[in-house]
Sequence to fold (58 residues):
Amino acid sequence: MTAAAYSVGSNDYSGYFAAIGASYQFDKQQSFKLFAATEDSDYGSDQNLVLGYTYQFN
Fold:
């Protein structure tokens, strides 16, 4: 999965956002997710890395 956006506004505002993610399901009960994103605009910048593990009880 990927996403990207670029924005332009009044008073010379500009910014962008980009993200990529992936997931893998080991079996019916377990899955793993990875998501990375970066954002930069006139208000500042931010980077995120998210890891997730899911286990579903029966």
Summary: The beta strands are 2-8, 14-25, 30-41, 44-55. The chain has a mean pLDDT of 94. DSSP finds no helices and four strands in the chain. The CA atoms of residues 10 and 42 lie 12 Å apart.
